Amino acid sequence: MRAQADGFALLAVLCCLTSLGVLAASFSFGARTEMRQARWSLERSRAYYTARAGLHRTAALLREHAQDPFHAANAPWWSAESLYKDVPFGESRYSIEHDGAYGVDDEESRLNVNQATPEMLMQFPGVSTSLAEAITLFVAQKKEAESAEAAQSQSIGAGPPPEASKNVTQPIRNLAELLAVPGVTTQLLYGGQPGAPLPDGLASALTCFSSGKVNVNTARAPVLQALGLSEEQCNTLLALRAEQFPGFASVEEFQRAITGQSEKPNSNGMLQRNMKLLDVRSANFRATCTVISSRGGLDARIRARISLGEAVLYFSLFQASTAPEAG
After folding, report:
1. For the ranges 12-16, 43-47, 79-83, 269-273, which has the lowest average pLDDT?
2. Domain-by-domain residue ranges, the chain?
3. Phi and psi (nearest 5°) for 287?
4. Whose CB has fewer CB within 10 Å in the chain, the N or C terminal residue?
């Protein structure tokens, strides 16, 4: 009997030890899981604030050069990899990118759809006369529909951000709105067709947030052609950029440079009409800041638009794909 009692006691002890072991393992697993979650949350927060810091550093750099006589995409402060690629910040690194390149991009390298004429839009590949007229009619109708709303906003003291009145931001505020125009397809707007004249679609040549001016030192060839330059004149300008030409210091200098180039019929007249839309500086920039972890994964990405005024600088877009958890 005593042996049997000892056996039961031993079994009870073993059961208790097993239960304690399972409980200890459970606590240990829970603690490791919480530690991993806390570490992941910390890394994500660090990446997010590193991305914010990268954009603010970039904004400070833009502000430093805001009053330069002219802005050109081959200037070191604009696209130097040493300033924008894998920049160390604390324990992290960030990169400022756009369209597969390092550095900043500007809205003034594009044509503002809010003030484009049918004649301009017809110069883009894939845009027929009827489609160009449909787009401008769509813009005009939206502008008319929003005029009453804008008047009401002004009457109650609401208004655009400081200096934003210098930008053409209405009525189209997102290029995706153009998909409501019959004939504007996703492929035409955003591209995706290899070998197409505009592989990235009209979105690579149009904007809905800019001063309305086009910077001749950064504008893409389709944009310059839409304003009246011939293909030969565009090739001449692109060749100058490839040779590290520092940029035109004035629109008059730009005009003199293209004088004498052979032109398509009436292209010179179109260019003369659009001279008021040309500039050699930019005031609205776009950039994407990414932070890649040491494990090779994307920890944070923030898209931003930075607008420069005469006395202020502000972010007119700040869109994060990842952000720290609340609390």
Report:
1. 12-16
2. 2-105+283-320
3. -155, 155
4. C
